[in-house]
Amino acid sequence: MEELTRFGGWVTITAAATLAAVVSSRLAERFRIPPGALFLLVAAGASDLFPSLSHLSIRSVERLASLALAVILFDGGLRVGWRRFRASAAPVVSLGLLGTFLTAGLLALAARFLLGFTWSTAGVLGAALAPTDPAIMFSVLGRREIAGRTGTILEGESGANDPVGIALTLALVSAAAGGGSVAGGVTDFVSSLAIGLAVGAAAARWVHPLLVRLPLRDSSLGPLRTLAFVGVVYGAASAAHGSGFLAAYIAGMIVGDAPFQGKRAVARFHTSLASLAEIVVFVALGLTVDVTAVFDDRVWLDGLVLALLGMLVVRPLAVGPLLLPVELTAGERVFVVWAGLKGAVPILLAAFALLGDVEGSERIYLIVFVVVVLSVTLQAATIPAAARRLGVPMLELREPEWE
User: What's the whole-model pTM score?
Assistant: First the structure.
C-alpha cells in the first residue's frame, strides 16, 4: 500500500509538470523566452530548496537527453524535408560540418588561454558548446516562422551540427580520458557519421513503402507507428557504433517528403513531442545542477565570458565567412549568425564529459548550465526584434482547420 501511495505521488508530480509545460507556452510567449528556459530555472532552484528532488543521476540525464534528442532531430528532419534540404545543401553542410569545427576550435582556444583550462578540457568544452538549437528560436517566435532560405539554413544547420558536435565530443572525451589516440578519434568520428548516414537513409527508404502500401485502419495510430520507427532507427544506428542522432535526422528528412495517410497528424504529433522533449531535458539539467556551486568558484564568470565570446566573436568569425557565397541579404546573414542559440545538445555533451570522467568535467557541466541559461533567456529574447530590424521574411502560421 505504501508503495502505491509513493508511486501515486510521483505520477501526480510528473503529470502536473507536463501540464505546466504545456500551459507555460502562453507565459513564455508573453515574455519572449522559450518554455524550456522557465523550467530550467525553476528546476535548478527547486533542487537547491528541496534536496530530495536532486536524486536524478547523470546517467539518467544522459539517457533522457539521448532519447529526447532523437525525437527532436527526427522532427527537425520532418520540418525541413529532403527537397528543401537539397536546395540549400551547400550552406547547411558547410555550417553543420566546417562551422561546427571552427566554433569548437575557437571556443577551445578561449577556454585555454583566457580561462586557463588544459588542452583536453578546453577541447571538450569547446565541442560541447558548438552545436546550435534553432528549435528554441522558433518557440520564441510564437505563431510566426522564418520563410525562405534563411529558415531552411537555420533548421538544417541545427540538424547537421548536432550529430557532428556529438561525434566530435565523444571522440575528444575518449582521448581526454586516455582511451584512445588522435588518429583513433578521427576514425571513430568519421565512421560514426558514415554509419548514421547509411542507416538513416536505408531505414527511410524501407519505411516509405511500408507507410504507403500498408495504411492503418485507425489513422490515430499513425503517430505511434512513426515514433516506433524513430526508436528503431536510432537504436539500430547506435548498436552499429554509428550516430543514431544523424540517422534519426536523415530518416526524418526522407520521410518528410513522402506522401502517406495521416501525414499532417503525424507532423503535428512529432512537433509537440519534440517541444515536450526539450523541456524534459532542461528539467533534468536543472535538477542535477547545484546552483550554489555556480557562484562559489566563479563558474558563473567563466560561463559569462564564454557565452559573450560565443555570441559576439566566435560565431561571427566561424559562420560569417561561410555565409558570404550564399544568396542572402546582409540582414539575413546577420540574423543567421545571431540566431545560434544553445539548447538541449550541450546538456547531453556535458553529461558525456561527466560519464567519461574527463578532467574538470564537473566544472564543464556547470559552465554549460550558465551558457545555456544566458542563451535561452537573454539572447533568445532578442530574436523577434532582430528579425524585424534585419528584414528577415516571416510567415504567419495558420490555426489548424478544426480550430
Answer: 0.85
User: Which of helix, strand or coil describes residue 151?
Assistant: helix
Cell (9 digits) for 65: 537527453
Q: Identify the CA nearest to 312 among candidates 375, 393, 367, 365.
A: 375
Beta strands 394-396 and 144-146 are antiparallel
Residue with cell 575518449: 174
Decide if pLDDT at 21 tops 90: no
Show the cell assigned to 238. Answer: 547506435
Cell representation of residue 31:
515574455
Helix (H) or strand (E) holding 119: helix 119-128
Do 322 and 98 meet the contact criterion of CB atoms below 8 Å apart?
yes
Question: Facing residues of 395 across strands?
Answer: 145
Cell 478544426 -> residue:
402
Q: Can you read off the three cell numbers belonging to residue 175?
A: 582521448
Task: Note whether 197 and 246 are within 8 A (CB).
Answer: yes
Which residue bears the cell 559576439? 312
Phi/psi at 347 (5° precision): -60, -50
HSE-CB at 323 with a 13 A cutoff on CA atoms is 22
pLDDT digits (tens, 9 = 90+) for 133-190: 866 766 666 566 787 788 888 888 888 888 899 889 988 888 887 655 666 667 878 8
Residue 8: Cβ-neighbour burial (10 angstroms; 0-12, 13-18, 19+): exposed
* Mean pLDDT of the region 232-243: 91
Between CA 280 and CA 77 the distance in angstroms is 20
What is the spatial distance between Cα 248 and Cα 69, in angstroms, rounded to a whole number?
Answer: 9
- CB-hemisphere CA count at 13 Å for 175? 21
Q: State whether the Cα torsion 355-360-363-368 is positive or negative.
A: negative
Q: How far apart are the first and last CA of the chain?
A: 44
Measured in residues, the chain has a length of 403
- Count Cβ atoms below 10 Å from residue 186 Cβ, excluding itself: 13
Q: Give the cell for residue 277.
A: 522533449
DSSP annotation of 399: P
d(CA 322, CA 334): 12
Catalogue all structural domains in the chain, each as residue range(s) with its CATH number.
32-48+56-396 (1.20.1530.20)
Residue 264 DSSP symbol: H
> CA-CA distance, 284 to 351, in Å (whole number)?
11
Q: Which residue has the cell 508573453?
A: 30
